[in-house]
Design a protein that fits this description.
- The complex is a heterodimer.
- By secondary structure, chain A is mostly beta strands.
- Chain A contains no helices and eleven strands.
- Chain B is mainly β.
- Chain B is built from no helices and 13 strands.
- The relative contact order of chain B is 0.34.
- The chains are: A mainly beta, B mainly beta.
- The interface between A and B is medium-sized, with 32 and 27 residues.
């Protein structure tokens, strides 16, 4: 069974640009969550999607957005990039969401974004 | 608000030593879930264990063991006879309950980098 796949693995952008990151969950998993990891703030929850609906959202500005498609694949977008957005963005999938979840999240290897 | 504290930012041990990683949490919820994840250099987080707030039994899995003490709000992780392959960053995390199960919105501690030297 293939794991969680994130693309691209590495990317460099400049301030003011926007970026879209993609996540393909494990086959059969319908919940996708996104986390940001930085040296200063650590791992922080961005948002969770289930059945194309956003279930939860972390404390991030509106420049951070996401969506989920009918095949459970998810994308996240960051607009008007700032230097502080440089981070490893991790996607995680689980079989179900919230009430029925096993609580085990399967993470991808992340997309490392550098903003210059 | 929930908070997870891992006071040890970095630990270095020699192979075969036992090592304990500390985790202290804060939550107002009476029902919650605790996790440990391992992050090797490749970046992905690997699930190790989940524990709910009603289950204070200690758990052992091979060389790994976990000690959950609700009275001190701690969920410590011990690796017995450490090996070089155990070198990684370890994260403790907390989630609130959604119904009778764990939610997927985790609050992570800052992580402990474990270096096991041969």
């Amino acid at each position: 069974k293939a794991g969680v796949t994130q693309t691209p693995r590495y990317l460099i952008k400049t301030r003011g640009q926007q970026v879209t990151l993609s996540c393909s969950p494990i086959s059969g998993h319908r919940s996708v969550s996104w986390y940001q990891q930085t040296p200063g703030q650590g791992l922080q929850f961005l948002f969770e999607y289930f059945s194309e609906t956003q279930r939860n959202k972390g404390n991030f500005p509106g420049r951070f957005s996401g969506r989920q498609f009918s095949n459970s694949r998810s994308e996240m977008n960051v607009s008007t990039l700032e230097l502080g957005d440089s981070a490893l963005y991790l996607c995680a999938s689980s079989e179900l969401a919230g009430s029925f979840s096993t609580g085990e999240l399967f993470f991808g290897e992340g997309s490392r974004l550098t903003v210059l | 608000a929930q908070k997870v504290t891992q006071a040890q930012t970095e630990i270095s041990v020699v192979e075969k030593e036992d090592v304990t990683l500390d985790c202290v949490y804060e939550t107002r919820d009476t029902t919650y879930y605790l996790f440990w994840y391992k992050q090797p250099p490749s970046g992905e987080l690997v699930f190790l264990i989940r524990r709910n707030s009603f289950d204070e039994q200690n758990e052992i899995s091979g060389r790994y063991s976990w000690n959950f003490q609700k009275s001190t709000s701690s969920f410590n992780f011990t690796i017995t006879a450490s090996q070089v392959v155990d070198s990684a960053v370890y994260f403790c995390a907390l989630s609130e309950a959604e119904g009778n199960n764990a939610g997927n919105m985790l609050t992570f501690g800052g992580g402990t980098r474990l270096m096991v030297k041969p």
